[in-house]
Every structure is written in structure tokens, then in C-alpha cells.
Amino acid sequence: MMNTRDLLNVPFAQTVAVGRRDALRCGLAALGASAAAGWAGGQSLVLANDTASQPDDRKRSPKRYEMKKSINLWAFPYPQRMTLEECLQLAKDAGFDGIELNYDLESDLSPKATSKDFAAIRQLADRIGIEISGLCSFLFWPYPLSSNDAAKRNRGIELAGLIAQAAHDLGVEDVLLVPGAVHIPWRDDHEPVPNDVCDRRAREAVGKLATQAEKLKVSLNIENIFFNGYLMTPMEMNDFVDSFGSEHVRVHFDTGNIAMFQHSEHWVPILGKRTKNVHLKEFTKKGTDYSLETFRPLLDGTTNWPALMEALDDVGYRGYLTFEYFHPYPHYPEALIYQTSDSLDRILGRA
Fold it and tell me: In CATH, what number is assigned to the domain containing residue 75?
């Protein structure tokens, strides 16, 4: 390298040339170093992107399932704080494909409503852009189809017929049906019914209703409910449903209703293609409360969701997964709807 004295003895043009050569060498060296660093950084970025794109079961299901998201109206503060239209819009805004409506004695969906009223609800849902995934009711508990009280039993059959007609008027195919109950632990006005009597009455009632369902082109989907002491295994459910020899009597499978002592993923392959609709209810086996209060928001329990989803996928189920919950949040009720939508996205591998 030249020192200052040497540099003073070199002609100006040569000095410039040497300076340029040194600068060029320095620039190339710097460029090479920069390129090397950029290559390493690029590799790190690619690796980071590759890692980010890899399935991560801590965040969501690594597999995407082609089933549809739905939520039951009971999760909304209806009708106390929200109108039916507000509930439908909220479900749509939160990202649900459908909403399950409930038939009651005092609501927009009740014996007071006419076919025209139901058609208007259908038009409202269509305008908002959300499907009605099914029709449900809590009326099978005060009016069980297997009750020892003939008046209650007959009223239950009458109401079931009205629900089926309402579904037809709504353009809804799926109707949830509770066929009978040996015991109803949350009611003190229900006299226990012997198992064989319950079975006989349930079969008689559903047989009558199936004829109407075929004419209306709706499906009566029998729900499994551990608490009522009837149809306690998937084999019993299959025997009951198959006995009618009708495509209009199927199964409405509820994941939470059997979770106290059984496992929902075990039922799915046994029920097979009979399952027409599905309720998702979260349950924890760690608790000691065995009432309706034991059900929890999705993912806050002990349900093996990956195993359940794989079982449903294996039998070819592509219908609605409807979150059913009986306790709207008393404060900021929209939070439950959005939380549930997010949880379902993760369960379905959509997130």
C-alpha cells in the first residue's frame, strides 16, 4: 500500500486510476459480502416462510375438513336483547355458513306463526346470505313423546307435527326429534317411564310422524341424549332408526350428550351414513357437575376433536357442525359468537 510520500510522487492521472481500482476492488468486495449476507438472509427468510407454511397442530387442524359451520340460536341473547334479524346477521358477520333455529311456544317460530311468517323468515335469511341448518326445539322435555301422561304425550306428537310443518315452510330439511325419555333429571314434573314402555311409545310416535315427514319431504333426525336414559348406545340408535325403513328418519348426532361416560369418536363409525346432522357440544370429564351447566365453549373441555373430525370425515359426513350452547354471555354476547366461529375454523383447518 502506498504511503503519503509515495502518493505525492505519483502523477495525478495515475493516482486517479489507482484510486478507482482500489475503490472498485473495495466495492466488489462489499458487494460480494452483501450478496453473501443477502443469500444467507434469503435462505433464512425462505426457511422461515417454509416453517410458517407447515401445518402446526398447536394453531389449527393440519387437515382441512369439508364440513359446514353452524351455530344454534340458543347461543344468542334472543329474544331478550337481540331480534331474530340481528342474530342472523351476527351469525353471517362472524363467518358461519348456517344457523339452527329453535321452535318454541312464544317466539318468531311458534304455533302462533303462519306459513307466510315462516316464508318471510326464509326470505330474511336468504337476503342476509345465511342458511338455516335445521330446526330444533326444547318442547320435547315438557311434552315427551313417551310420557305417562297421555295429554302431554299427545301434545308432544302434535307439536312435533307443527315443527315438521314449520321446517317445510322454511325450506329446511332437517328436524331434530327427541323420541322419548325414561328419566328427565332437570325436571321435577316427569314421572320415570319403564324402559320397555318408553321404547314402545317412542316407536309408535315416530312411526306416525314419519308418514307426515315423507309427505313434507323433511327428515326427522333422532338425537342421542345420555341424560334421558334412552338409546344409550349407537347400536340401540341404529336399531331404532332402521326399524322405520324410511330415509326420512335419520340421526342427529350430539357429541356432548354422551360425553359423560362415552366418547363421540367411537359412535361415529357405528352410526355411519345414518348421521344427517351434528351438534357440537363441549364437555369436560374433569368436572363433577352432570347437569346442562356442564357444557362449555368449544375447545374448553376434554373432547378429542382431531379424532372426532377424522371419524366424521371417514364416514363421508359433509353436513353442518352446529355449536349448541344454552348460555349466551351476559356481557358482550357477540364475543361467544366470534369465539365459536374462530374455534370451528381451527377444528375444520380453516384458520
Answer: 3.20.20.150
